[in-house]
UniProtKB/TrEMBL annotation:
UniProt entry keywords in alphabetical sequence: Heme, Iron, Isomerase, Metal-binding
Location of the Cytochrome c domain: 69-155
Region (Disordered): 172-268
Protein's UniProt name: Ketosteroid isomerase-like enzyme
Molecular function (Gene Ontology), one example: metal ion binding
Annotated organism of origin: Oceanococcus atlanticus
Domain of life of the native organism: Bacteria
Amino acid sequence: MKNFIYGMAGSALIGVILAFAIVMGGWFPVAAFPPEPPLVANLIHTAYEKAVTRASRNIAVPADLASTERIQRGAYNFQGMCAGCHTPPGQDPSVQVQGMNPRPPDMQELLAQRNPAEAFWVIKNGVRMTAMPAFGPSHEDDELWALTAFLQASKTMSSAEYDAASREARVKYKKGDGHAHSHGPSAGTQQNPMNDDHDESGAEHAHPGPSSEPAKTQGHHDAEASPPKSGHADTPHEHGSHPHPESPDTDQHTSHEHPASDARASPSKIADELFTALRAGDEKTVRQLLDPAVLIFESGGAEAGLEDYAAHHMPHDMTFLATLNSEPVSRQVFDYGDHAIVASRSRLRSDSQGKRVNLLSTETLLLERQDTQWRVAHVHWSSGAAQ
């Protein structure tokens, strides 16, 4: 018996040493591709399902979950919070989704085998070690229940029904009468209040520069034509930095082939026009390009609405933009029909007045097609010191 115990203890010790060696030696597989063996995947998924079931057991589902009001609000929220990963009906998965592990389910699969309480818990708390974020810290429960209501109602939605529901929700809520973009304890205010004394390094703020219109848009995963380089500038208050959208040989475009309705039908062109207008101090054009309810995130701060932005950092952005030069790094455009995402990166430099700026800047624009034109509904700017 003693030998058996010693043998078990020795085996356990060897196992611990072996596991430690694998981790510290860098041998543990962490890449998203190729996927883990089915046995490991099933074990992880089973642990996930059991944890969600236990954690959501005592969640009370609102009695009016199926109300039209909740479903419409949820349809609006889904477009801004979820559609990029959870592919709506009739659309192709984005290139990011195709490379994710685990791959996020399509919109209609989300509640196929899950009840509303479980869905609400996942939306609120997120899922560790996946791309599923926790929306609880940034959104009120009522907004998350609205999203749950929409997912419950959309399980059998056709592509045409989804498009109609999305369009109706945008018409109702895009001006801010029903969906508050800033949530939680800091709702409606800047979460990291910013003053007008700018960081002279410029490290907190930078904007994208213009690029030429892509030569063609062929379809899903097609690459845009390479736009030319141009100057770039930005503003150094405690915001995120905005990248230069143009990038030779690195632009990518994801499209579902919607015909151009006017001269500004391209989301990429809207990104360029926004930079050009900011750099020129053209507030009139900026107002035409931004949705009145635009939500702007910069380095932890938030400006909710065009008037909030115009009253605070827009003038400083316009002033500082003239001091920076931009080198494009990349741009990707994802066209989902009536909304699109333009993601740009650039390197920003300036030696203006002896103050050296050298930043790597990123910008994400969420655009909505309103009537015949695109307008920017959400902006996220960030930057860091370039290596």
